[in-house]
Specification:
Layout: H1 30-37, E1 45-48, H2 55-62, E2 66-71, H3 74-83, H4 89-108, H5 122-125, H6 128-145, H7 156-167, E3 171-172, E4 179-180, H8 189-207, E5 214-219, E6 232-237, H9 247-257, H10 264-273, H11 281-284, H12 300-309, H13 315-336, E7 340-351, E8 353-355, E9 358-360, H14 362-372, E10 375-385, E11 393-401, H15 405-414, H16 426-440
Parallel strand pairs: 1-2, 1-6, 2-5, 6-7
Antiparallel strand pairs: 3-4, 7-11, 8-9, 10-11
The structure holds S-adenosylmethionine.
Length: about 450
Amino acid sequence: MISQRSDYTFKYNRSLGRHGWLRLTPAYSVKLVGRIIDDLPDTCNILDPFSGTATTGVVAAERGYKSTLFDINPFLVWFGNIKLANLSGDDSAALRDALRNVVLSATDTQDESLWLPSLKNIERWWSRETLITLAQLRASLVKIIDEPKNAGFLSLLWIAFARVAIEHSAAAFNHVSVSFQDDTVSHSKQEILLAFESYAEAFIASATAPLPGKGIVHLHNSASPFHEESQFDAIITSPPYPNRISYIRELRPSMFWLGFLGEAREAGELDWQAIGGTWGIATSRLTTWSPTHECAIHSLDTVVEKIKRTGEKNSELLSIYVKKYFYDVDEHLRSIQSALKPGAEVHYIIGNSTFYGVHVDTPDLYEESLLARGFKNVSSRVIRKRNSKKELFEYCTSATYGRAKREYRQTASENPHEHSYKPRYEQLRLLESEAKYLEKQRPTS
Ligand SMILES: C[S@@+](CC[C@H](N)C(=O)[O-])C[C@H]1O[C@@H](n2cnc3c(N)ncnc32)[C@H](O)[C@@H]1O
């Protein structure tokens, strides 16, 4: 029986301090990242080119590591940097002070005609009464601490606001997609302000837990050249999967309320830049997309052709979608090399997919690109089953850059002052034997 292992998903993170602040369904689990990090040398500079909610950065910082993260979504860059901030005692006192003033100001505000975000069909998300309170709370936050982009560490209160807005919406995040209850529920002003206060208090408490390491998130398209040269010892990351899931779908309420999106079309524009994005204009642009560079994944054409030949309504479009996804991935793996130290180890958590019954063997295609781009010791192992119905799995595809892993290990142990190794966790061995079993179950195309 192949397990879905919810402990290897975002679900595991919900009660873990900073990790539980805001949900992103495709976020990976703290446990999974921790296991990879625990097998790294003690002095390691870690890179995550697809930061998302900065899980890699926070787990690395909790273990005393330095990390650099990139994401294409400005909201996630902003959010990741708040998650990675170390708050002083004075900072938390200032936050508590600001919290008190925001709640007082929101309680006093009676204005019912305040600014609302241009989120499409906003009335499906919140009742009129709830919207008025959210708008009043938002206006108070702007007055007391400024807009999210200008509020510095006080932005933690904006995260509490985003959490309250989501929790009081009619949206259900059952799966990776968002569905809506038939009717929006009305929440009283008192209920919303109380929830805001208690989230903010809890977030301030978790943000004061010191992070011994350091991490920073930058805005960057990871399918374009990196400016960092030979800096990183390891990549731990989870890029988008070729499954047509757009992060915008889940993040857009927070992004609109917090001013990271203004007009509806901006969401599609942003998603077009993202690997595997399909939101709004990002899907129609596919029809005119053509590659601008060579792709080193030669078996890609066969898969793309198979999808196209199914003759289904959207087979042509989806074949281009898969093609573009892997062209972007290959470009990423080509670009990332200059940022890596020789011998650096890379770990990509990725998922396979199917289109009209055609299996897209993501780990195989990543492996082909990695080998062509100068990586060695390329291998993949199954992490978990993703979905109860389909043959969808999550894998960890790993490799070393330039030099063989063994040489890297030898070099490290020749210089014991530079690197020392942590013992491999017993659980990791268990995980590996389980993975070998799961590997045998891997579907063939
Ligand atoms: C699967 S999520 C990462 C989740 C993350 N591991 C976490 O735990 O939250 C993939 C991320 O890649 C980002 N992304 C997509 N295309 C990108 C690109 N071209 N450059 C940088 N980031 C990109 C998305 O915005 C998204 O946050």
